[in-house]
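Monothiol glutaredoxin-S5 (Zea mays), 153 aa
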Amino acid sequence: MYQAIPYSAGRPWPRPAPAMGVEAAAAVAEEERLLAAAQQQQPSAGAEAAARGEEVRRAVAECPVLVVGKRGCCLSHVVKRLLQGLGVNPAVHEVADGAEAKLIAGVVDGGGDVALPAVFVGGRLLGGLDRLMAVHISGDLVPILKDAGALWL
């Protein structure tokens, strides 16, 4: 039976436990120390996060419809397909992990937590998949999309 290996783009692949002597173990420890030192020399995570947050703010302001979701999330795919079925071509911004998803909270007026996928229409947060479906079923989604300039008909 196969076992799934969790993957995160933010951290390196786990290494198998070394079955080696003392000298080889010391070499591996030195390599890991050098890797940690190299990571500390990279630009700070705060500056990088601020740049990503600014990128999301700009996308929300420029795009009539923006879908923000986790990379590879099936719910994001459902949101995108629903909007495409209505004739809207949404911009999609994929985030890698939960820490990056907190950047989206800075875009929202209240600054609260945002469930992913988040759908922004006309520069304002419409909500997640459940809110999008509720608005669609009630018949209010098409007028909202027309007011935002995402639909022409």
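DSSP finds six helices and four strands in the chain. The mean pLDDT is 75. ok done for today
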